[in-house]
């Protein structure tokens, strides 16, 4: 049995010995983005600056001029943004610009375990994709825009139809299309500020909060104790291989997934409103955008109460489809790295992403499926700000880099990942083998 590990800063105690982090992050488990951000500022301990590698920068005067939008720098002030900086900027122009804002070197070791050596896997891969992306660009193609806007139009048509015909069946179909709309919008909120990312606000979640929980936490610290998409679902969904999981945590989700998964975004919405009313916390932008859908249904419906029922049927369907796909798309299987499992000796960030992500063979190469089911997820994690329409063009150079570093790459099928989600939650024994993408040496 691994030794007991506890974190006095957060009051967490568990028999799981972390392998990515030395101790559980402050405020763990992170049930909202504010807890995660405040805990990260404590753990990174860089004062009023931004840390990138072993240097501190004062980007205060650059916030309003940041090409990606001011939000990224506003929320990360006082933290180590090394992973965010490296994965968001493919070209070297951002590195040159940083020199203007340099404050001083810092000798304190980074809290994050990851490395970005110039001759390492990730930096080598970035150099190889630079000329390709310079030619084809990193932004959305016309196909991406047609798919996103076409799905939104279909959602509106189905929503009006369900209202006029008072049809719960059509409301459910509208919910399926809403799930595709917001999944596709996920592609856009990784990019610089744009209006299409706000399609995500039509759900009971907001692009603003997901830019933190998904883009700044999950994408950068995937499947570790610092991944808010791991901790925010605890204690009902326990993905880390904690030896002290009870039977409900190990097997209960097989039953309660159907009931509880659709309620997760709605519960967070209620908690946000409660925090605003009782604690005076500012609501995230777009918190009430989804009620525009209720207004639209009410206009065409026979009564407000019928409209409300159709609205809830629509959204509960959307949440179920969205989270069902999200939780089985790429990250959870006993063969995939989760904090507590044996970690590779070389913690290159790109290699660690390969350890924590798997691609599904069924969706690769189909842009509609890629956009609506979190497809081509490995390349998306390595280059999150690059539009999904450009990822398939990068597979040859990606596989070339894998071969150069003697890293095998293979796909999983969706049924395997679906079953793997439940196997991982039932798992109470950390994997003692190296991650699947490390070549074993006898």
TrEMBL record:
Annotated membrane-spanning segments are 172-189, 313-332
- Keyword terms, alphabetized: Heme, Iron, Membrane, Metal-binding, Transmembrane, Transmembrane helix
Q: Which GO terms describe its molecular function?
A: heme binding; metal ion binding
> Which part of the chain is the Cytochrome b5 heme-binding domain?
16-107
GO terms in the biological process aspect are: lipid metabolic process
Query: Which superkingdom?
Result: Eukaryota
SMART domains referenced in this protein's UniProt entry, alphabetically: Cyt-b5
> Which PROSITE patterns has this protein been placed in?
CYTOCHROME_B5_1, CYTOCHROME_B5_2
Cross-referenced InterPro entries: Cyt_B5-like_heme/steroid-bd (IPR001199), Cyt_B5-like_heme/steroid_sf (IPR036400), Cyt_B5_heme-BS (IPR018506), Cytochrome_b5-related (IPR053100), FA_desaturase_dom (IPR005804)
Q: Does the keyword Transmembrane apply?
A: yes
Q: Does the keyword Transport apply?
A: no
Which family does the UniProt entry place this protein in? Belongs to the cytochrome b5 family.
Entry protein name? Delta-6 desaturase
Show the taxonomic lineage: Eukaryota, Metazoa, Ecdysozoa, Arthropoda, Crustacea
